[in-house]
Amino acid sequence: MLDACVVPGVTHGTYVRPEPKRYLDPHEREILFREGGMNAVYAAESGAADEAGDADASWAWLAMGELPADVLLFWKRRRGAAFIRKWGFSTRHADAVYGPGWLDME
Predict the structure, then answer these.
(1) Can you tell which superkingdom this protein's organism belongs to (predicted)?
(2) Within a 13 Å sphere around the CA of 45, how many CA atoms are in the beta-carbon half?
(3) How many CB atoms lie within 10 A of CB 21?
(4) Which residue range forms the structural domain that includes residue 35?
């Protein structure tokens, strides 16, 4: 069962952020998990939250995933570094591609 292997809240750095409101039913989450892992669940929850008009939950779910470096660079250009930090996006992949400190560079 998916919920048995998912600890509520997500660790980002040194703090644990509470899990955003769920919009998918458990069966759908289980199918998504089997098909694409937790990133698929996060993306689907983000989309469902967006459809429900819950922008905060949508961004929070998206930030829980491991996004590719080019996607984070897009969001940096579109919304700024503060936006990425505010939502707690993992920059691990972007740090590896663009180098440490990329988020603060022009």
Answers:
(1) Bacteria
(2) 28
(3) 14
(4) 1-65
